[in-house]
Design goal:
Elements (H helix, E strand, L loop, with lengths): L1 H4 L62 E2 L5 E2 L8 E5 L2 H16 L3 E6 L3 H11 L4 E3 L3 H7 L3 E2 L1 E3 L3 E3 L1
Parallel strand pairs: 1-6, 3-4, 4-5
Antiparallel strand pairs: 2-8, 3-7, 7-8
Helix pairs in contact: 2-3
């Protein structure tokens, strides 16, 4: 019972589980928690909120400099992705590929990444052709490097890369 009445401070050593070598200090993110006592009050400035990512125009242009439209040779890989995904652009090859493979992509639950688009018309065209498939606008450069892919459209599944 007396243990409950005495405050106990627990301290332990930190254990680093993983360090990529690109670790950054968290200190700059903690500034918001510092006390503001003694500081003069400032009147809040009214700022019109920006829609940011909710505004499709803010996404444009979508570019993936390491990727271009072109043929992809089918091959196996050893990265067990839990869900198939595909990379497409807004070019004619990608649009045709999406129309041809849309039903299969839906069957396997694939998610798409639009890795190249210049205009709002490009976004509208891909959305119309997707017909219910989830396609997110994003650069595919990092994925392309990791999987040694240089062309799209391409489907990446649990065990292979194909067009």
């Amino acid at each position: 019972m007396s243990c409950l009445l005495v405050p106990v401070t627990a301290r332990g050593d930190l254990t680093v589980i993983y360090d990529s070598g690109h670790t950054h200090s968290i200190a700059p993110f903690l500034d918001v928690f510092e006390s503001r006592e003694g500081m003069p009050k400032q009147n809040p400035i009214q700022i019109k909120p920006s829609l940011g990512a909710a505004d499709p125009k803010a996404w444009l242009p979508i570019q993936s400099p390491d990727l271009t439209p072109g043929p992809v040779l089918a091959r196996a890989h050893d990265r067990p992705f839990t869900r198939p995904f595909f990379l497409i652009g807004s070019d004619s090859r990608s649009r045709q590929w999406l129309q041809t493979h849309r039903d299969r992509l839906k069957e396997i639950g694939a998610v798409g990444m639009l890795v190249q688009a210049e205009t709002m018309d490009d976004l509208r065209t891909i959305a119309r052709l997707a017909d219910g498939l989830s396609i997110l606008p994003a650069s595919g450069s990092d994925i392309a490097k990791a999987l040694s892919v240089s062309h799209y459209p391409v489907l990446i599944s649990a065990h292979g890369i194909e067009q």
